[in-house]
Design goal:
alpha/beta; Rossmann fold; 3 domains; 6-stranded mixed beta sheet; 17% strand; globular
Length: 691
């Protein structure tokens, strides 16, 4: 038996033994994302690039969960972890099937490049819907659970998660290959790095992916500062570049002159793998003396160690997961549960829930019968979809009148027609209805990654926070009728709908059964319970420049209330759920949550902390949350841990220190801000803590 075949040895020892059986060229070939086979070890060719943001992506049929921003709106650790467990099992099933048929193509592997734990600091950023929102604490807690769900807790990794994009990466998309994100030590430590640290230290994430941009003048995929942070945190997985990011070193950032120089800079810094083609020049870099054989060996050991942790040299419990484990009724039910829990009710004058006694409903809008409105990006293909229109049709026994109403963003739906070609149909339908349900918003053709969207003018970023003009006109026409109007928003970011409506329900991109979840919410079969993981602003004009990575004026922790439309943590319910009896110690907050209604409902209890030193955040910071499901009239005493880090102030030099001795803990179903109080009619509880 070769030493690397001995499963009693550690993955590190086995990887070292296997690497030492390879020539330098063979070692270098393992550092490409499409690694060549190692026949002597029984390892076939392997493509590292696979995606699992909200289900297995880009490889055919898989369960499609709500987009990540919607999953964040659940504020539900356990359910998010369940999504990740299902995703990882389906990845195993698809991997096993592909291997059995000699298919070693892209998107078929066990290394999932998810989650995206960048901070959604600017609502215009097109990729923000891939994240868990704007708050570093929420992002950390949810990211840790997603990684644990993907990787499992057995001897072998079920799949290998990857924390991306390290670090300080959130637009602008059009400039990501040239942009230098200049950021202070305080903002780095307080906002941009905590989630990455948590995933490394707590969840032991197997992979970390670097970003395209520079960070304070250093390329993120070869940053001495960032790589040192990983060493401080004890990271022992593999580091990969974002795709073709290393070629940016010489083609866009111009910090190197040639491809061999770029490969050398990245490899020596600690980038083990290249998603791209620059590491084809590693041997040239070796010949030029820019790197050593030991640099290549070290990186090769890291990538082989991950494959060994995945069990690719051994027989594992996952080898028998069948293709029939993909897209089961159970997994689709979890997707639907997530869609229900993630929906955020932003406005309701009492029109919702709708009565079953209605005779005619008009369902109108470009997202009403759109599958794209369900999916978001980095998505798989569901085996069945239920659009908003289909879900309402399933649930409502009366007459449904449907009109697309307008194009998602163009001024007409048919090329030879005049502008506004479907407005008259939409208005005519609406005139005949008891209630209008307008399904508007965006999809991943308008907000997304550079090169993946049809939004050529902003490379995936949004130019502002409004709906496209075609939809604004449609809503104006519908509002003018004076009929009951419910607006359903499908989008992955802050959108100011700016319509005179009776109710506004944000469904995000709710996954394959989003339409069924919507219908249950509209008719009161379930109560909305999601909370905003981002601030909804009135206008982008009052936000800082998108290129400014300072947190001043951004997110609920730093922005003033003048520009807040709907606050972070906000979300209405059909039930009247209230908190009482707050008691706090340094480490624990206890309170009673009571459902004063005659319907069952979920609620998210939130804890915020405010310090009073000059260097604390101007407002307050989330430091705890718990989703609670309550029966009619039920009262429950709950306990939430306050982490020690909540009391720390990040100083201007990036160090953490407990500065003050007086803190206020706020507890409730929202933030303690004025806007939330006005929108909910409820105040947060508060308690003073002295250290």
């Amino acid at each position: 038996m070769e030493r690397y075949q001995n499963s009693a040895l550690s993955p590190q020892e086995r990887a070292e033994a296997l690497a030492d059986t390879l020539t330098v060229q063979e070692q270098a070939e393992q550092l490409k994302y499409n690694a060549t086979a190692i026949p002597k070890a029984g390892l076939p060719a392997y493509n590292w690039w696979n995606e699992g943001l909200h289900g297995v992506a880009r490889a055919g049929t898989a369960t499609m969960f709500p987009q990540a921003i919607g999953l964040a709106a659940m504020f539900d650790r356990e359910t998010l972890r369940r999504c990740a467990e299902i995703t990882s099992l389906e990845a195993r099933a698809k991997y096993n099937a592909a291997q059995a048929h000699g298919d070693f193509d892209i998107y078929k592997g066990l290394t999932l490049w998810a989650p995206n734990i960048n901070i959604f600091r600017d609502p215009r950023w097109g990729r923000g819907h891939e994240t868990y929102g704007e708050d570093p604490y929420l992002t950390s807690r949810l990211g840790v659970e997603y990684v644990r769900g993907l990787q499992g807790s057995g001897k072998y990794l079920r799949t290998a998660a990857c924390a991306k994009h390290f670090a300080v990466h959130s637009g602008p998309e059009a400039e990501r290959h040239t942009f230098d994100a200049v950021v202070s030590p305080k903002d780095l430590e307080e906002t941009y790095l905590p989630a990455f640290r948590a995933l490394v230290e707590e969840a032991h994430v197997e992979g970390v992916m670097g970003a395209y941009n520079l960070v304070n003048g250093e390329p993120a995929c070869a940053s001495k500062f960032l790589m040192e942070k990983l060493r401080e945190w004890g990271f022992d997985g593999y580091f990969t570049s974002d795709c073709w990011a290393i070629s940016d070193f010489h083609t866009h950032h111009c910090i190197t002159a040639t491809a061999p120089e770029s490969a050398a800079l990245a490899l020596k810094a600690g980038c083990d793998m290249n998603c791209g083609n620059t590491y084809l020049h590693i041997l040239a870099a070796l010949d030029k003396g820019l790197i050593t054989k030991e640099d290549i060996r070290r990186a090769c050991i890291h990538v082989l160690r991950t494959r060994i942790r995945l069990g690719q040299l051994d027989k594992t419990e996952y080898d028998s997961v069948p293709i029939t484990a993909v897209s089961t009724e159970e997994s689709k039910a979890v997707s639907e549960e997530c869609a229900l829990k993630s929906a955020v009710l932003l406005k309701n004058d009492g029109i919702l829930p709708l009565s079953d006694k209605l005779e005619t409903i008009a369902v109108i809008g470009p997202n009403a019968d759109s599958r794209a409105a369900l999916t978001g990006n980095y998505n798989g293909t569901a085996d069945s979809y239920i659009t908003f229109l289909e879900g309402i049709r399933e649930r409502f026994s009366g007459r449904i009148l449907y009109s697309e109403g307008c194009h998602l963003y163009k001024d007409r739906t048919q090329g030879l027609a005049q502008p506004g070609d479907l407005y008259s149909e939409a208005v005519s339908m609406a005139e005949c209805a008891d209630v209008i349900i307008a399904c508007v918003g965006l999809d991943a053709t308008l907000e997304g990654e550079e090169g993946d969207t049809g939004n050529e003018f902003s490379s995936g970023d949004k130019p502002d926070l409004r709906l496209p003009e075609s939809q604004r006109i449609l809503l104006q026409k519908l509002s003018a009728l004076g009929k009951p109007l419910v607006v359903v928003l499908a989008a992955g970011s802050s959108v100011n709908v700016d319509a005179d409506c009776n109710a506004l329900l944000d469904m995000w991109y709710p996954g394959q059964r989003g339409g069924r979840a919507l219908a249950k919410l509209l008719f009161g079969d379930a109560s909305p319970s999601g909370k905003l993981p981002v601030t909804f602003y009135k206008t982008a004009d009052m936000l800082p420049d998108m290129r400014d990575y300072s947190m001043r004026g951004r997110t609920y922790r730093y922005c003033g209330e003048d520009n807040v439309l709907y606050p972070f943590g906000f979300g209405l319910s059909y039930a009247d759920i209230r908190c009482s009896g707050l008691s706090c110690t340094k480490g624990v907050a206890e309170l009673t949550v009571t459902n004063h209604s005659d319907i069952p409902a979920g609620e998210v209890v939130q804890l915020y902390i405010k310090g009073y030193s000059e260097q604390d955040v101007p407002n307050w910071s989330l430091c705890g949350f718990q989703r609670v499901e309550l029966s009619p009239g039920e009262s429950r005493r709950i306990s939430l841990e306050i982490p020690p880090s909540a009391y720390e102030t990040v100083l201007q030099d990036g160090t953490r220190k407990v500065v003050g001795s007086r803190f206020t803990i706020y507890a409730g179903t929202s933030q303690p801000d004025r806007v939330s109080q006005e929108l909910t009619g409820k105040s947060c509880l508060s308690a003073e803590i002295s250290l």
